[in-house]
Design a protein that fits this description.
four-stranded parallel β-sheet, 325 residues, 13% strand, globular, 10 strands
């Protein structure tokens, strides 16, 4: 994204906050590193399907149901941008019949592992069936991998998963087709519901500030503007003191009502920004690159999008009605 070129004087205090918060890109939950521990090839004839992210695993589960043996490399709350593969991940890939990954460099270390020798399964970049938003990062144009922020984008991804599963297990075509159709209907309802909720935010308050640049598709689809983030598309980036200062000034100048932390990133530095800018930090964190833990209220794609929308709308001055799906 384009960085704002203004500069202001909050140096010493913000640099202290920056130094304290530079671990924001390395707070991956320990349990995510054992997500494929003990994974073995299925012995009951079901195809072995591996998904790199929790989001893709959720969609594959909706379509495949009990007729696939599904393994998710990442666990809820894990950050795909910085995840470091472990030996069990290689085993899961090697034993897979089909591997779904996001693509657009969302999970760079897992993509490198996929391209290594010994991984012979069919590999499908489901995120890359969606034409990307191109954003500026360090002087280059790169595709934004966070395509699921627009719920309508998930429909072609689910259709791709359906078609790949049918090719893998043609005897289950009717089931996969029926499951996908039912889920796509829910996605259509979700897309319309989000648009209705964000429309209740006062127009001059439809301003989104988050920890990393993961909500451009959401903003474009639902009438908001991303006016600033601490870091860019990947959480591997470390924000400079200047970036923090610029973000504080932008929040003040635009009168942003509230800003948002994310569940996969240490909230310490965005908390510092909120304190310096004198703005509310929403008490609920947004789900960005992963679904939440079981029982969190955001443990599926549908529930995480509802939770995110409720948090964004209520903290930016809108009102939310409960979804009917």
């Amino acid at each position: 994204m384009q960085r704002i070129s203004l500069f202001s004087r909050y140096g010493s205090l913000l640099i202290l906050g920056l130094a304290a918060g530079l671990g924001l890109a390395s707070c991956e939950p320990p349990e995510s590193r054992t997500s494929t521990e003990g994974a073995t090839a299925p012995e009951d004839g079901r195809p072995a399907v591996v998904a790199t992210s929790t989001l893709i695993a959720d969609w594959a589960s909706e379509v495949g149901g009990d007729q696939i043996e599904l393994t998710s490399i990442l666990q809820p709350g894990a950050d795909p941008h910085v995840y470091e593969p472990v030996p069990a991940d290689s085993i899961a890939f090697e034993q897979a019949d089909l591997i779904f990954y996001n693509g657009y460099n969302l999970e760079p270390n897992l993509i490198r592992l996929l391209n290594a020798a010994g991984v012979n399964a069919r590999r499908v970049a489901v995120g890359e069936v969606v034409p990307p938003l191109d954003l500026e990062e360090d002087g280059a144009t790169v595709p934004d991998p966070h395509v699921w922020g627009d719920a309508s984008n998930v429909i072609p991804m689910v259709e791709t998963i359906r078609d790949q599963l049918i090719e893998l297990a043609p005897d289950q075509e009717a089931l996969f087709t029926q499951n996908a159709a039912a889920y796509i209907d829910e996605l259509d309802q979700l897309h319309s519901w989000i648009a209705d909720q964000t429309a209740t935010i006062p127009p001059d308050q439809r301003l989104l500030v988050t920890t990393h640049d993961a909500f451009q598709y959401y903003a474009n689809a639902y009438g908001l503007s991303v006016v600033g983030t601490l870091i860019g598309l990947s959480t591997e980036e470390q924000p400079s003191a200047r970036t923090v200062q610029q973000l504080v000034q932008t929040i003040r100048q635009l009168g942003v009502p509230a800003i948002f932390a994310e569940t996969t990133i240490n909230p310490q530095l965005i908390t510092t920004v909120a304190n310096e800018a004198g703005v509310t930090l929403a008490p609920e964190q947004l789900y960005s690159d992963s679904v939440g833990a079981p029982g969190s209220g955001g443990d599926t794609y549908l529930t995480m999008m509802v939770a995110n929308t409720r948090t964004i709308v209520e903290n930016l001055g809108g009102t939310v009605t409960e979804p009917g799906f």
